[in-house]
Design goal:
Radius of gyration: 21 Å
CATH superfamily: Cytochrome P450
Distance between the termini: 5 Å
Bound molecules: protoporphyrin IX containing FE
Largest sheet: 3 strands, mixed
Helix content: 55-70%
CATH architecture: Orthogonal Bundle
CATH topology: Cytochrome p450
Number of helices: 18
Number of domains: 1
Length: about 375
């Protein structure tokens, strides 16, 4: 789908009608208007299917006023001040990830990092939402075997929770039941940890009529389906592009080594330290520019299209070139960086996912000399 829209824009220009009432917009001044204050963009039919008859569903809510008031209720749980509490949980998962990498891995061994990153992203969502590690990373066998059976094994194990991860309709129902069970379990268990659910329970106490149990479950469900695959896809993209273009991997490794020698890098890397790593930041922006984990709405802006606009992003927009983010004009590029959406519906979990990647990527490259098992092979997309 993203590649089809891209080629349609190349053929027809900045406005492409993709259905009787659907428009894909790549015109910069129209984009500013769509995401500017007060402009209401109808959400697509996919959103209404998700919503069903439930009252509180931030993701699917089509009325902009209702959406805004729902978002106000929950936004504190995802705000920067929460990150301090959540970082410790991401750190624990990063340690498990690194520990698993160390088990039985000899030099020259082939490891399915894509699969491991996926399990990591699910475990982090468990930690930050339910204060519970799902334990998916424990599925990684000690000795690296062929990747295929491992993937099927993991998939079988995950099926009761995430449904068939290739089938989004089957998946949302089972995710919601899973979230409902886990919200109840978390209430029974109690905890001192300040995960997202703790903060949502506080909102519920303060405003029980506006934010009932259904609303809590709805947010927990959203976290799982909006925050796991997306972060996994983005982390994989970062690793893939770095390994595909070893000259940029080397620049990142140099940045890591330099800071390490100066005693400015912890293990695992802290969010605050990663925020002060310009090359790491450039790498993350560039990978998500080229490979955003989501695509488009009804009168919508598709990050696959906009983030390839040469007016904003300069030459060679199809290439992975992190250095473009180190230039002075990067401010404009950040304004048109759509991987996390924009405006009133911008991703609520953006800081959380950025933190996951900021910690995992430099820590991984600090410890391991990674390269692609089949460097000539291009990755293929099933969309
Ligand atoms: C790199 C990883 C991620 C990407 C690329 C991503 C992308 C997006 C995008 C593009 C939207 C806007 C969708 C729209 O226009 O309707 C969105 C919304 C949302 N995301 Fe993320 N997301 C990521 C990670 C997360 C995480 C980790 C969480 C939760 C912990 C999360 C929670 C949400 C929620 C709750 C919304 C709905 C916001 C609203 O409607 O007001 N996301 N995400």
């Amino acid at each position: 789908m993203p590649t089809t829209i891209l080629s349609l824009h190349r053929k027809h220009g900045p406005l492409v009608r993709t259905g009787p009432s659907e428009l894909s917009v790549a015109d910069l001044s129209a984009i500013k208007k769509i995401y500017g204050p007060g402009y209401q963009v109808p959400q697509d039919r996919l959103h209404s299917v998700w919503q069903g008859h439930r009252k509180f569903n931030l993701f699917a809510e089509r009325d902009e006023g209702v959406h805004a008031s729902q978002r106000r209720l929950v936004s504190r749980a995802y705000a920067m001040e929460s990150l301090r509490d959540l970082e410790a949980y991401v750190e624990e998962s990063a340690k498990v990830f690194l520990g698993k990498m160390g088990e039985g891995v000899d030099g020259g061994m082939v490891v399915d990092l894509g699969n491991r990153v996926h399990l990591f992203a699910f475990d982090v969502i468990g930690e930050v939402t339910f204060s519970l590690r799902f334990g998916f990373m424990m599925l990684v066998p000690t000795m690296a075997r062929s990747s295929k059976p491992k993937l099927y094994w993991a998939h079988d194990f995950l099926m009761p929770y995430i449904g068939n991860w290739l089938g989004i309709t089957a998946r949302h129902g089972s995710l919601r039941s899973f979230a409902m069970r886990e919200v109840e379990a978390r209430k029974d268990r109690g905890t001192d940890r300040k995960g997202i659910l703790s903060k949502l329970f506080d909102v519920q106490k303060e405003k029980p009529s506006e934010f009932n149990n259904n609303a809590v479950v709805s947010m927990a469900t959203s976290n799982i389906f909006a925050g796991s695959d997306t972060t996994a896809i983005s982390t994989r993209a970062i690793i893939y592009y770095l390994l595909k273009k070893p000259q940029y991997k080397q620049r990142l490794v140099d940045e890591i080594d330099y800071l390490r020698r100066q005693g400015k890098l912890s293990d695992p890397v802290k969010l605050e330290e990663a925020d002060n790593m310009p090359y790491l930041q450039a790498v993350m922006y560039e990978a998500l520019r080229l490979h955003p984990a989501v695509a488009g709405t009804v009168v919508g802006v598709n990050p696959w299209v906009v983030d390839r606009n040469t007016e904003i992003f300069g030459e060679e927009v199809e290439s992975f070139r992190p250095d473009r983010w180190l230039k002075n004009e990067a401010g404009d590029m950040k304004r048109f960086f759509f991987a996390s959406g924009s405006g009133a519906r911008m991703c609520l979990g953006r800081s959380i996912s950025w933190m996951e990647m900021s910690k995992l990527i430099p820590t991984l490259f600090m410890h391991y000399e990674l390269e692609l098992a089949e460097p000539e092979k291009e990755w293929t997309m099933k969309c």
